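Notes for week 9. Today we move from apo structures to complexes. The key idea is that a small molecule is not decoration. When we ask for a structure prediction with zinc ion present, the ligand SMILES becomes part of the input, just like the chain. The input block below holds both the sequence and the ligand string. Read it once before you look at the output, and try to guess where the molecule might sit.
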Amino acid sequence: MEAGRAHKALFCYFRLSLSVASTVLFALLPSKTAAADLTDACLRALGSRTGEICIVDVRTGRILADARTDGVRTAYAPGSTAKLITAYAALHKGVINPATRFVCRNAIRIGGRTYHCTKPGGHGALRLEDAIASSCNIWFYQASERLTCADLQKAWAAFGLAIPEKSLKPVFRAAVGESGFTVTPAQMALLMRNIALQDTGSNNPCSVLCRAMRKVTTSGTASALKGAGVSCAGKTGSPSQPQDSQRRHGWFVGFAPAHNPQIAFAVFCLDGNAYRTAVPVTVKLLKSYAAQKPGN
Ligand SMILES: [Zn+2]
């Protein structure tokens, strides 16, 4: 009898420790595997390109993957992704609202120099949402006349980025992310999470930005993302390279799915531009994300 009871107790103890061990094991294993899978998916999406992809969990703010290839530096000019922060600064200051229109006739003269927009003939009269969707430089040059460098600095700081005021000059170049300051993919991914979390569906600045970012991927500069298998919202950027203004880099920053964000991310590609490099890389990345999450 005694031996039988001891045997039974020992058996229970083993069963218990086995189940504790397997719980611990399974709690650790899938997350490690998922992180490795996600890093692999990032590297596969980059393929032969030099670049970096950072993915953040929208709910927790945890960095799920930060995959970079050899030859990429830490930080680069944000280019047109900065227009989101410029829009935030102007909305927050109350100097524009979602209905404010500026006209783009393809060229504008500022400080004795002529600056051009990407669209021959210009974008015409645009509201903020369409200015972001089509990434119109001239719209943002005009909006920036209502802002100071300090306004832009405050707006970046509201998203946790300390940009020195001297690198936000002149304000019209800073408004389009071309005044010399740089950002990292991790900073941009966390910034996207921040915007996504403040989307209340109302007319607060972040909700306005989120609507515009959805338009970027449905009918704007990143409409190639419609084929990605999961909806997303974001912004393109093609900053010129400091050493050679004829050459550019590519950014796409955003979150997915578009209406119930689970991940926020930043894709950076050395050389090329947003349309030729960062957007196609994002399509590949989201396709493998959609394959892993059939619910989306
Ligand atoms: Zn334009």
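The chain has a mean pLDDT of 90.
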